Amino acid sequence: MQYWPVPTTGEKKALWFLAIVMLSGSVVRLCRSTPPVASADEAALDAQLARVDSVRALGHTRKPTRERPTAATRQRPDTAADTASASVDLDHATEAEIEALPGIGPALAHRIVSFRDSAGAFGQIEALCEVSGIGPAMAKRLRPLVTFTGPRRPVSDECSAASRSPRASRGSRASESR
């Protein structure tokens, strides 16, 4: 049977020194390490919750408005009542759902969906005015019939000139043709 020799005092000091250096290196490495990275789904969920919380903190709520009936709603009261009872979310609606709104045909519904797909969710009625064919009158008529669940985005001039292209007046067209 073989016995290991007992370490000397110098060897004991060297072993203690190595143990302390290894332990302190592990502590430093632990302190410098970054926290675990959340998955992409968790990060997206956290961002969405932050947006919802910020909107709630600002107190954005949709107040019901009472508007006088327009000519379109007087002509077709049954269609207007059906549409008003179930508001359409324009940030997620299909062309068929948008076309069911009064005053919107298949071409305009297609332009709304195409604009939403290229520029992102509307978020508010003023952003809808950027679609060609939607002006202040149409936006006012659609306001009680539509909702928006997407994030709000900056818009320009609230329906004043966003969807209107410059048009020549009849007088200027007549003088140009002569």
Would you mind describing this structure in some detail?
The chain is an all-alpha fold and 178 residues long. It has a domain at 76-153: Photosystem II 12 kDa extrinsic protein (DNA polymerase, domain 1, Orthogonal Bundle). It has 9 helices and 2 strands, in the order ααααβααααβα. Strands 1-2 form a two-stranded parallel sheet. The longest helix is centred in the N-terminal third of the chain and has 24 residues, at 9-32. It is rod-shaped and about 100 Å long. It starts with 8 loop residues before the first helix and ends with a helix. The model is unreliable at 76-84 and 161-169 (pLDDT under 50).
Give the SSE layout.
Layout: H1 9-32, H2 40-58, H3 71-75, H4 77-85, E1 88-89, H5 95-99, H6 106-119, H7 125-128, H8 136-142, E2 146-147, H9 170-177
Parallel strand pairs: 1-2
Corresponding CATH superfamily of the domain at 76-153: Photosystem II 12 kDa extrinsic protein
Report the CATH architecture of the domain at 76-153: Orthogonal Bundle
Stated plainly, the CATH topology of the domain at 76-153 is called DNA polymerase, domain 1
Form type:
rod-shaped
Mean pLDDT: 76
Uncertain segments are 76-84, 161-169
Which strand-content bin applies to the residues? under 5%
Strand tally is 2
Classify the helix fraction into a percent range.
Answer: 40-55%
The main sheet orders its strands as: 1-2
Main sheet record: 2 strands, parallel
Distance between the termini: 123 Å
User: What is the count of DSSP helices, taking H or I runs of 4+ residues?
Assistant: 9
